[in-house]
């Protein structure tokens, strides 16, 4: 069943019923239009209510249908909306929970809209690289006015129903029964004529051209090469400058253009990739999860504090354990400082701050944490320290507690083996700053129990993180790949580039930060420590020594006020430094390299294809379950541009044979031995396939 039809007295009710969110696919549209026709033909019916079953009014057009013949097959979404608008009997949209995209556009085609308080209303198409394509850009400004409509369409963000009084004819209390209230409303307006139609209204905005020009400039500056936001402005502009039908036609053309763009395909890929990441083939969706009602965190340093905040924000009490009282005091003070800064910025209320801090307690004794449902270890990155901690945890934690480690490089299986309960051990690799970054790499050890994995995935949602499962290897998915990217960044300096050029090329490509600015933010000493370990463990791998020389100059990054760049107090801007650049040039000379001009294209290819090639190895080894998981890691943890879909998707769009050819070319160049094309990449390229295909 995709839309149900019932008659209550003189009111016909059409209930969209296409779980989980009543996406308006072909079958749903067909059934709903049939419902409208049935109501039209029934003389006993005087008014019609359209609503949605389950957890949404409607999440909009069915995204899975895009770029398939079903998307445009009749009755199209336009036809559905036009049928409702053209009905000779009044049609009332009865909205609850979620009303988005095509769902909101449908309601704008209805003669009346009623809603429950708190329903989330949005035109989120821009987040999929699109614009509202079923009349939203023309009808919403006619209802809300130009400026509020433009804000909703360009941001895509949801707004609560009670904040949109102009949109609704009636708003019912959040706990009211929607359907009886909507039926009563429909009965009340059944005989009112003429039927009110949004299309008949005008958008009035004095001096609209000046406002639209200001919007174009602002949006262009913010969106960069991502086309959808500016297209949103142009189509909304048409609601003022064109007649309704012409505006609709213009919207249609721009929508059909955007839906074919790589950026939109990338964003739709990311949408589904995010949801797919939480599914593990051998862990069924109905695997019971362990209740997480309390947490303990070992180590109140940079990561421990941030991780604690995630739990506190989700309302889960946290007990923080440290070796020394001073470390505890410092950790707690830092947490409070973060919350106070949010308070100052108006992002948090004093009440919420107090509530969160009241959930935080601390201890120096393992005896106090035994009853926690999960414990996350975030102590120094040394196996010996981890061993001591996990042996203690094994001794004190109640049976069934989950023992998680935040290690970024160490072997989770070895850590699990320090306990007599390796099934309960898992890696939860948060990213810094842990209270901000969306990514949570969930490291599945070879013994990790399925319900522990299912619990960690469910927990990631509760903590508002994107959980991605990784197998055990050095660096897991994200850091293992970034190492190859960083190596290339170093080799580029040896060959002729300067940090500023590399960063600018990467940032123009869309990375939030280029490799050197990122190094300065994370602390260059961290990479230095890892490389020192590698020089001993894996002497066969070559690295540029430039970064070591930088550290030897004492330039660890922002924390020392100087790294690849200079920094000024109270200013995060990076200022190039002559001594660093001279060191780089001198290092090339010492290596006997004649520096050359390197193009931005080469810089981007070498950085991104280094990620892709390592990603292919990771996929082949089964460390990542699927290419889209790797993409999620990069989109949510490493500032990879969202509208490029992640490194693996980007490689697919660049064409794997082209990626392979470039890798072969770079293998002939400076430090060419770093480029060994992954067998999976070679295979897929030869077969004309893609990573995400
Ligand atoms: N089409 C198809 N499937 C959809 C969908 C849609 N519009 N919206 C959600 N889904 C699917 C998800 O893929 C997921 O599937 P899965 O269970 O197989 O993984 C399932 O519904 C549940 O989704 P969430 O996990 O996101 O559930 P939540 O309850 O957290 O959120 C939601 C629900 C707020 C509706 C959220 O899913 C969402 O934001 N969806 C996207 C809405 C959107 O972008 N709509 C615009 C569509 S484009 C459009 O309408 C074009 C028109 O202008 C012409
Ligand atoms: P940190 O040095 O800031 O904090 C570590 C804390 O652990 C210190 O406060 C220390 O007093 C405490 N500690 C040490 N031994 C202890 C013990 N035996 N018992 C109780 N407390 C103890 O280190 P950071 O950066 O927070 O890293 C912690 C872990 O998180 C490491 O495994 C690291 O690899 C990992 N990680 C770090 C990231 C980062 O960007 N800093 C990112 C992701 C993971």
The helix tally amounts to 28
Q: Regions with pLDDT < 50 over 5+ consecutive residues?
A: none
Distance between the first and last residues' Cα? 31 Å
How does the helix and strand content classify structurally?
alpha/beta
Q: What portion of residues belong to β-strands?
A: 5-15%
From the alpha carbons, calculate the radius of gyration and give it in angstroms. Answer: 28 Å
Largest sheet composition? 8 strands, mixed
User: Could you say what the CATH architecture of the largest domain is?
Assistant: Alpha-Beta Complex
Total separate domains: 3
CATH superfamily of the largest domain: 2-enoyl-CoA Hydratase, Chain A, domain 1
Secondary structure: number of strands: 19
Helix content: 40-55%
Q: From the 3D structure, determine the CATH topology of the largest domain.
A: 2-enoyl-CoA Hydratase, Chain A, domain 1
Specify the oligomeric state. Answer: single chain
Strand order of the largest sheet: 12-11-10-13-14-15-16-17
Overall pLDDT confidence = 97
Spell out which ligands are present: 3-hydroxybutanoyl-coenzyme A, 1,4-dihydronicotinamide adenine dinucleotide
What best-fitting shape do the alpha-carbon axes yield? Answer: globular
CATH class of the largest domain: Alpha Beta
Main location: other
Subcellular location: Peroxisome
Domain 3-hydroxyacyl-CoA dehydrogenase C-terminal: 475-567, 603-689
Protein name: 3-hydroxyacyl-CoA dehydrogenase
């Amino acid at each position: 069943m995709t839309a149900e039809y019932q008659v209550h007295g003189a009111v016909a009710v059409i209930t969209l019923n296409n779980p989980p969110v009543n996406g308006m696919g072909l079958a749903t549209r067909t059934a709903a239009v049939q419902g409208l026709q049935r109501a039209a033909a029934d003389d006993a019916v005087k008014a019609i209510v359209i609503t949605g079953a389950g957890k949404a009014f409607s999440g909009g057009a069915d995204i899975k249908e895009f770029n398939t013949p079903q998307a445009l097959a009749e009755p199209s979404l336009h036809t559905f909306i036009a049928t409702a608008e053209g009905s000779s009997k009044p049609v009332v949209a009865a909205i609850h929970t979620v009303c988005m995209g095509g769902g909101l556009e449908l309601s704008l085609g209805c003669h009346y809209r009623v809603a429950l308080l708190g329903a989330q209303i949005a035109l989120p198409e821009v987040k999929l690289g699109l614009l509202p394509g079923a009349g939203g850009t023309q009808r919403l400004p006619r209802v809300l006015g130009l400026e509020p409509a433009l804000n909703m369409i360009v941001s895509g963000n949801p707004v609560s129903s009670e904040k949109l009084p102009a949109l609704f004819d009636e708003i019912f209390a959040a706990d009211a029964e929607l359907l009886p209230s909507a039926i009563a409303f429909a009965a009340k307006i059944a005989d009112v004529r003429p039927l009110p139609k949004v299309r008949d209204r005008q958008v009035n905005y004095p001096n609209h051209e000046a406002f639209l020009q200001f919007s174009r400039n602002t949006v262009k500056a913010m969106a960069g090469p991502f086309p959808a936001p500016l297209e949103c402005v142009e189509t909304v502009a048409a609601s003022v400058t064109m007649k309704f039908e012409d505006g609709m036609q213009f919207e249609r053309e721009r929508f059909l253009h955007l839906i074919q763009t790589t950026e939109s395909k990338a964003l739709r890929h990311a949408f589904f990739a995010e949801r797919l990441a939480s599914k593990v083939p051998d862990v069924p969706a109905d695997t019971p999860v362990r209740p997480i009602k309390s947490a303990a965190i070992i180590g109140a340093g940079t990561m421990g504090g941030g991780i604690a905040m995630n739990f506190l924000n989700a309302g889960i009490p946290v007990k923080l354990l440290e070796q020394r009282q001073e470390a505890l005091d410092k950790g707690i003070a830092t947490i409070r400082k973060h919350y106070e800064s949010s308070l100052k910025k108006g992002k948090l209320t004093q009440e919420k701050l107090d509530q969160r801090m009241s959930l935080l307690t601390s201890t120096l004794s393992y005896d106090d944490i035994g009853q926690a449902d999960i414990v996350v270890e975030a102590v120094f990155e040394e196996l010996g320290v981890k061993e001591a901690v996990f042996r203690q945890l094994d001794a004190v934690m109640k049976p069934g507690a989950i023992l998680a480690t935040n290690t970024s490089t160490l072997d989770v299986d070895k850590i699990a083996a320090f306990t007599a309960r390796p099934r309960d051990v898992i890696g939860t690799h948060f990213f810094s700053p842990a209270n901000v970054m969306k990514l949570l790499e969930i490291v599945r050890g070879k013994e990790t129990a399925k319900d522990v994995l299912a619990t960690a995935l469910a927990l990631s949602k509760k903590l508002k993180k994107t959980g991605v499962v990784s197998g055990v290897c050095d660096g897991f998915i994200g850091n293992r790949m970034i190492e190859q990217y960083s190596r290339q960044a170093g080799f580029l300096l040896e060959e002729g580039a300067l940090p500023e050029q590399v960063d600018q090329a990467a940032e123009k490509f869309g990375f939030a930060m280029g490799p050197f600015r990122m190094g300065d933010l994370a602390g260059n000493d961290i990479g230095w420590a890892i490389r020192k370990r590698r020089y001993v463990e894996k002497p066969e791998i070559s690295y540029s020594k430039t970064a070591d020389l930088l550290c030897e100059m004492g330039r660890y990054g922002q924390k020392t006020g100087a790294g690849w760049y200079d920094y000024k107090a109270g200013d995060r801007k990076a200022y190039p430094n002559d001594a660093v650049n001279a060191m780089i040039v001198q290092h090339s000379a010492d290596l006997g390299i004649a520096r050359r001009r390197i193009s931005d294209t080469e810089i981007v290819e070498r950085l991104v294809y280094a990620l892709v090639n390592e990603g292919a190895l990771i996929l082949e080894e089964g460390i990542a379950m699927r290419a889209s998981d790797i993409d999620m890691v990069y989109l949510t943890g490493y500032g990879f541009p969202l509208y490029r879909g992640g490194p693996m998707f980007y490689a697919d769009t660049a064409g794997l044979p082209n990626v392979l050819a470039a890798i072969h070319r770079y293998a002939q160049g400076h430090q060419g031995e770093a480029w060994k094309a992954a067998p999976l990449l070679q295979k897929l390229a030869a077969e004309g396939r893609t990573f995400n295909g």
